[in-house]
Amino acid sequence: MNILETRAITYEYRGGITALHNVSVTVPRNGCVALLGSNGAGKSTLMKHFNGIITAKSGEVLVDGERVSKENLRVVRQKIGMVFQNPDDQIFAPTVWEDIAFGPTNLGLSPEAIQERVHQSLQLLEVEHLADRPPHHLSGGEKKRVAIAGILAMNPDILVLDEPTSGLDPVGIRELVGLLRRLVQTRQISLMFSTHHVDLVPDLARYVYVMHAGEVIGQGTVEEIFADVSLLSRARLDVPILTRLVTSLQNRGVPIKAGYRFEDVEQALYSLISDKPEMR
């Protein structure tokens, strides 16, 4: 069963401006899905439907096979952990510890259970040293980790991140990607994230939806999406740098296998060099 599904979602802003049109996406249990699109494609608007922040004009959202409604929003919001693009939109407590404890406290857990969940989240996100710090004194990368820690403390079934690398420097992006990959590998949790950074997608996603002007214009595996240059062009997206490198080498007659992640291209190049002593 899919943990999350939207069926033909259509949403209009005031004045009748269509922001989403017949958008259908699915996230399988323990799956990792990317919403890829340029700024203004409708990614954030779609995500706000997942836990009832906004309501579609038509269509429906299903979580664990049940339609999201006013009556089950509390349960839905326990299952869907939403991390906003700007962590300042969800971090508000006087200290990091109190902020992470807010969600478990609202779930009515015992003091012992709350303490255990906060401790686990701090440890998992590697922010134990920030526990007593005021959140507004933290760096952008630290705030992002704290925001994720606060969501994970509620033990959601799916983690939804809107532009997770927004505002981070290259080191912060690399650290966050590593963290998210460890989360997917070590916890029984699904992941959906939105981004316009094509180079981020192969590192995390198994399946990709491409959005443009409020519609899904393409979907498929990472390999299928990034092999479709015309689709990326239509969505106003570039080809990932590693894909450009491999394609350029292939066009020059180098028999290198296609690759989309750094590790894959590195291994392909190493294998190529190993097979040709003259290239060492």
TrEMBL record:
InterPro entries: AAA+_ATPase (IPR003593), ABC_transporter-like_ATP-bd (IPR003439), ABC_transporter-like_CS (IPR017871), ABC_transpr_CbiO/EcfA_su (IPR015856), Co_trans_ATP-bd (IPR005876), ECF_ABC_transporter_ATP-bd (IPR050095), P-loop_NTPase (IPR027417). One of its GO terms (cellular component) is ATP-binding cassette (ABC) transporter complex. PROSITE patterns: ABC_TRANSPORTER_1, ABC_TRANSPORTER_2. Residues 4-238 form the ABC transporter domain. SUPFAM superfamilies: P-loop containing nucleoside triphosphate hydrolases. Keywords: ATP-binding, Cell membrane, Membrane, Nucleotide-binding, Translocase, Transport. It is a peripheral membrane protein. Its main location: membrane. GO terms for biological process: cobalt ion transport. It is found in: Cell membrane. GO terms for molecular function: ATP binding; ATP hydrolysis activity; ATPase-coupled transmembrane transporter activity. Belongs to the ABC transporter superfamily. NCBIfam families: cbiO. Probably part of an ABC transporter complex. Responsible for energy coupling to the transport system. This is ABC transporter ATP-binding protein. The lineage of its organism: Archaea, Methanobacteriati, Methanobacteriota, Stenosarchaea group, Methanomicrobia.
